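User: Can you help me understand a structure? I only have the sequence.
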Amino acid sequence: MSNNLFRNKYRIPSARAEWHDYNIGYYFITICTDKRIHYFGEIIDRQMVLSQIGNCADSYLKELHLFYDDVGILSYVIMPNHVHLLVAIEKGKKKVKNVNDDMNEKMQQTANKCGRLSHVISRFKSFVTQYARNNDLPFMWQTRFYDRIIRDYSDFIVVEHYIDNNVIKWQNDEHYTLSDQ
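Assistant: Let's start by predicting it. Here is the structure, written out as tokens:
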């Protein structure tokens, strides 16, 4: 991206790979809370104990397939201050269920511009944020998310193993912080 100005203000260029459209593929996603605050719960005796917001995020991820025909969460873990996802986006379906036709078309156009992956992550973040607001719970996301394109089966296995073992290796995690409570 050559111009870092938006409305005459400097902005950080996208971290997404310019050569990839993010409308199909496998991705390892990390989404952090603002200031790494432990909004999602705590790890006690090597088990993640979800908070009310953590349970909301968990429910949404388990039911994501009800909203998207083309997106699957193959593996995920909710940590105290971040979420890791292994996401698959299939080619050709791209239909959002349970949304009126005009809205569906508008969302489809947006997804095509920014990539399906960004659209799905944005909707997840928005859902959790709205839940927190509706329930008067303090909560904020970090503004962006980290993605890694999964390029082959061995990379897939490494990511899946990392997600599966993240809770028990919490103190070695790069996002590790002590509880803020």
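Now, to help you interpret it: Residues 20-165 form a domain with the Alpha-Beta Plaits fold (CATH 3.30.70.1290). Helices lie at 52-67, 101-114, 116-134, 153-165. Let me know which part you'd like to focus on.
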